[in-house]
Amino acid sequence: MALNQDIAKLAAEFGAAWDERTTAIAGIRIDTAAQLAGFREERAEMAEEQDERLKAGVAALRIDVAGMLGDLNEAHAAMAAEQDERLKAECATMKSDVADMLSDLSEAHADMAAELNDRLKAEHAAMVSDVAGFMDDLAAGSAARAEDVAATLDDHATARAEMGREQDARLKAYVADVKSDVADMLSDLDEAHAAMAEELNERLKAEFEAMKSDVAGFMDDLAAGSAARAEDVAATLDDHATARAEMGREQDERLKAEVAARKSEVADMLSDLDDAHAAMAAELNDRLKADHAAMKSDVADLMDDLVAGSVARSEDVAATLDDHATARAEMGREQDERLKAYVADVKSDMADMLTDLDEAHAAMAEELRAQMSEDRERLAADGAADREERLDDVAGRKAGWAKVTAAMAKRRERAASAKGRKRPAAAKPVVKAPVAEPAPEPVAVVAEPEPEPVPEPVAVVAEPEPEPVPEPVAVVAEPEPEPVAPPKPKATRDDLTRIRGIGEGMQTRLNEIGIFSFAQLVSTSVPKIREALGDVGRMARIDEWIDQAQELSESE
Questions:
Q1: Structural domain range at position 552
Q2: Same domain, 132 and 265
């Protein structure tokens, strides 16, 4: 009986222990579920906060890129306007110079025509006087006077030949002056275009350096972001490269349009010059015809007066006059040929000038396109390298986290196995209790086998241990990345993103080194900030940041 009571008491105690253990397991499950829910809420909050930061960073990046593109468009528009004004001023100057040249040419031709007309009138008057004297001498029948008339006609022919040579020399001198003026004008135009090309190249280099610095700042701000933000930056850079290529094409079109305008203006100038030369040639031809007609009239009168004279003398005078007319016609043809040759030389020089100008503009456009292509390839390569570096960093962190998770899983398995080994040892006294005293009443032990089922709950109790308890432990380890949250600011905190060149990521880095306000940024030295920022600080414009922070601090 005492043994039965002990067995019943032991069974009651074991049942109570079993209930307590079941209750404890249920409590553990409830606590684990609560912890899992809390961890999920914290992860959701962290994800929302990270999404907001990413959205804010992307929005700030888009605003900065839009501002950069706007500034770049304004700078290019200003450069194009300035170049247009310079080209217009040069065209106006060239038009004025050509107009002055044409005016000087017209005045020179007018002076030459007036001088030639005066000489022809004087010669005609002298000839009339000589013919009158000759008629007087013929009236007396003097043969010596006839020889004097012949000598006079020879002198007149010699004087006309001398006058032709002088006019030829003047035309050559004038052509040489015009060629010198055109050469000086082309040299000035080449120097102006070279200076404009150099200035445009310097501005493009400066804009590229500024853009490279801004892109480096953006890439630093995106160091803690995801690969999607890197793709957005790459797309933005591609758009910017496309915009720069479009601007290059527009500039090429403007240069082509300007060259076409220059060609049209030079063609108009040559056409005006041809018209002026044609008008001068026609005027000179009309004057020569009028002089020839007047001379023929005078000769006709002379021939009427010489009807009573010697036929031989009349034939000599007619031959002399015909030779004079032939000489005048030959001089006119030579002058026309010289004018045509001069116009052809001017046209050839202008054509060579336009060809050289086209080649210079083509070389400038090709050099600009090659430089833009190199800049675009270098930016793409830098973006790809930075993206690969970020992906490698993320892969390394994932591998480290996987190692930590595997180590914690092994630790949980060891803890679970150790816990399972301890619990079956506590159940041994329950099994050995009936066997401990077989001698006093062996029949009673055999007659009552009820206590034998007691070991079964021990095996059942040991089985629930492998239940999915390890999962909460893996989730509990996730809150370790919480140190990413920025430290709390000091007493005063300013929005450092108001400074041009500082984004959300850069503001976070400045906060990490203890700079929260404009005053702290102004009071910190440039080398200290650059050293604290590390690689990011090498490309940053910290001097400009301090100047802007000083202005914002004074305005507030």
A1: 486-556
A2: yes
> What total of structural domains would you count in the chain?
2
Instruction: Verify that 389 and 499 share a domain, yes or no.
Output: no
Last residue in a domain, options 377, 396, 415: 396
Would you call 42 helix, strand, or coil by DSSP?
helix
Number of H helices, E strands in the chain: 13, 0
Give me the percent of the chain exceeding a pLDDT of 90: 10
DSSP code, position 493: -
CATH code, 532: 1.10.150
Please report whether residue 449 resides in a domain.
no
Tens digits of per-residue pLDDT, 136-195? Answer: 776 676 567 557 757 877 887 788 788 878 888 887 887 688 588 857 877 886 787 678
Which among 68, 83, 93, 51 is positioned nearest to 185, based on CA atoms? 93
pLDDT tens across 206-248, in order? 877 887 887 677 667 756 665 666 577 568 768 867 877 787 7
**C-alpha span between 390 and 138 (Å, rounded):** 120
Q: Which residues of 29-42 are buried (b: 16+ CB within 10 A; e: fewer)?
A: eeebeeeeeebeee
Q: What share of the chain is helix, strand, coil (3-state, %, to 5)?
A: 90, 0, 10
Give the DSSP per-residue string, 285-333: HHHHHHHHHHHHHHHHHHHHHTTTS-HHHHHHHHHHHHHHHHHHHHHHH
Contact 51, 222 (CB under 8 A): no
CA dihedral 63, 69, 75, 78 (to 10 degrees): -100
DSSP 435: T
User: The tokens of 45 are what?
Assistant: 């909050």
Q: With 0-12 CB in 10 A as exposed, 13-18 as middle and 19+ as buried, what is 160?
A: middle
Q: Which residue has the tokens 């409830």?
A: 30
